[in-house]
Structures are given as structure tokens and as C-alpha cells.
Amino acid sequence: MTKFLLALDCSAHSQRAADYLARLAPALGDSQVVLFSVLTGVPYTEAEMADNPPPAEVHGDVDYQQEITAARAFLEEVRDRLQAAGFAAERLQVQLSPVRRGIAQDVFDAAVENGCTTIVVGRRGMSRVRKLLLGSVSKHLVHHAGAMTVWVVA
User: Fold this and answer.
1) Whole-number Cα distances in Å, 18 to 21, 54, 129, 130
2) How many Å apart are CA 143 and CA 15, to the nearest integer?
3) What pLDDT band is residue 132 in, cutting at 50, 70 and 90?
4) What's the rounded Cα separation, in Å, for the pair 113 and 107?
5) Going edge to edge, which strands form the sheet with 149-153?
6) What pLDDT digit, counting tens, does each position of 31-49 carry?
């Protein structure tokens, strides 16, 4: 059985990756899919605030809660679409995680922790100059995935 990690970031690019996986659903049989998103905002949960309270001037918690709400809604929408395409509900899992070691590394870590054999990610379509300056999550995943398969959907 194949287990996929579908890395999503609420963009049209990740939506295309989800649509691609949905089109393949009939051929994927009993495969499992982990829908995964890295939250890039200020990760202040009650536990994190107890250990390391934010300075008084930081107001990122409201933005972070909005990011969580938007990401959850997006992942739930994708989950519903994959279910409609033929993936059984018990074979779909939704995970959100605050950024820890960088987006690409967090995606890879989640794939390993979940026992995934394939990572599916959308391609951002950045220019060569932007890629050089900013890097690319999909490029990092392809170059550092080792024995794991990476599908980059354009």
C-alpha cells in the first residue's frame, strides 16, 4: 500500500496537486493520503506561551488563528474533493503543523513520521531569479528526499 503526503499551502499550485491526485484516485486503490500544511505564522499556543511568553508588542496570535482557520478550511475542502473522487474517508488524514525547521524540512519530516513513500507538492512557478534568491520547497524536496518519491505537479 502506498501512503502519500500531499503538501498544501492554500495556493492554486497546491490545489492543482490535489486535483491531480484526485484524478488518480481510481488507480490508487487502497492508498492512504495525509493532507499536510505547515503554518508559517507566530505559533503561540497556550503551552508555548507558558514556556516562552511573547513580548507585549507582538500581536501575531490573531493572524495565526486566522491562518489556522483558513488552512483547516482549505484542507477540509481538499479532503472532501478526494473523498468524492474515490478515496475512502478512513484513508484520508488531515494534519497542520507550525513551522519548526523550515517548510521543506517540515514537509519531509512529516512524510517520514507518517510512513509516507511519496510526497505530492505543487510547483510555485517562480522565475529563475526568485528561485535563486528565495529557494523552492519543491526543489529542496526533490534534492533531499533520498529514497522517497516526490511528485511535483505544475
Assistant:
1) 5, 36, 27, 25
2) 23
3) very low
4) 10
5) 92-98, 32-39, 3-7, 118-122, 149-153
6) 999 999 998 875 545 555 4
> Quick one: pLDDT at residue 134?
39
Could you give phi then psi for residue 126, rounded to 5 degrees?
Answer: -75, 155
| pTM passes above 0.85 | no
Segment (H or E) for 37: strand 32-39
Selected from 3.90.1150.10, 3.40.50.300, 3.30.70.1520, 3.40.50.620, the CATH number assigned to the domain covering 3-153 reads 3.40.50.620
Give domain limits for the chain: 3-153
Q: How far is the C-alpha of 17 from the C-alpha of 146, rounded, in Å? A: 21
Question: What whole-number distance in Å separates Cα of residue 64 and Cα of residue 55?
Answer: 16
In 3D space, the residue among 79, 81, 100 whose CA is nearest the CA of residue 90 turns out to be: 79
